Amino acid sequence: xxxxxxxxxxxxxxxxxxxxxxxxxxxxxxxxxxxxxxxxxxxxxxxxxxxxxxxxxxxxxxxxxxxxxxxxxxxxxxxxxxxxxxxxxxxxxxxxxxxxxxxxxxxxxxxxxxxxxxxxxxxxxxxxxxxxxxxxxxxxxxxxxxxxxxxxxxxxxxxxxxxxxxxxxxxxxxxxxxxxxxxxxxxxxxxxxxxxxxxxxxxxxxxx
Length: 208
Hints:
The protein is mostly helical. The chain has helices at about 15-25, 30-45, 50-55, 55-65, 70-75, 75-85, 95-115, 115-120, 145-155, 165-175, 185-200, and strands at about 130, 175. It has a two-stranded parallel sheet with strand order 1-2. The protein is globular.
């Protein structure tokens, strides 16, 4: 008998949360701009709910110039003042300063690895972690993988990248597939993970 599949979360009447679950969460990402967007949003989420951040996402996109990492890296005191006055986003000075700092560190990583995506996916050798969860009670807040990446990011000067924040980032960008095995999205995300791994290993390494 075929397994009856439903959404593992996001079906509670909140259209943005449902769309995010159905279209984005867990999909393997290799686009640096999108990865930077999630890095900023996950940092902004610290201590808050993802729903709060998701409902302010368009405001963040506007305020941070579409998450253009080169532009954000050039932000100065005037931009910090502008962002602190923007009621549409999270007006936390430390988080705003961290986003700007992280844009600069992001570019440093990109210069070293060619893309930030290449750096991140290197931690899993291009293959998403398939958690095969059967209940939310089994879903961790952090793992040894998120610990490892968090420590490396901190050593590179990133801020607001504790292991819990990093694990949320891994879930969002598809390095970890935490859809429950009974979720309607699970088979598609597994397939996309296989495809992403195949593309990753076809690429030639960057010249030293």
